[in-house]
Description:
By secondary structure, this protein is mostly helical. Helices cover 81% and strands 0% of the residues. The chain is built from five helices and no strands.
Amino acid sequence: MSEEIEFLDYIYQNAKMGQESIGRLLKTRNKKDEIEDVAKEQLNDYKKIANSAKAMIERRKKKVKELDVISKVATYMSVKMNLAKDDGPKEVANMLIKGSNMGITQIKKHLEEYKLKNKNVINLANRLLTIEEKNIENLKKFI
C-alpha cells in the first residue's frame, strides 16, 4: 500500500473517530445547550473530512478501512463513563479538547513521518489540523 493511501486511511479513521465520539456524546448526554451546538458543528466538520478522504481513497481504486468494532465499543464506554460523573458543559469541553489535542499530535506526527508529494492529500491533512485547532478555541469558553 502506498504511503498516500495509508495517510488517507489515517485521515479517514481520525475523522470517523471524531464523528463516532461526538455522536455518542450527543446521544448519551441528550441535552440542549450551547456546547451541544459546538459539538454538532465539530461533527459536521469531521463528516466533511471523512467524506473527502473516502472519495480520495476510492478515486485511487482502493477500499476504505472502516473503524473496527473494538474502537467503537471503547469509544462508547469512554464517553459513557466520563459523562456518568459529570455531563456539564465544562466536562464535555474537557473531553472534546482532549480528543482534539490527541488529533493534533497525531496529524503532526503523520505529516512529519510521511513524505507526501500530493498537494491534495497534504491540504486535507492541514484542513483536519485546522479543524482540530478551531475546535479547541471554540471550547475554551466553557472551561
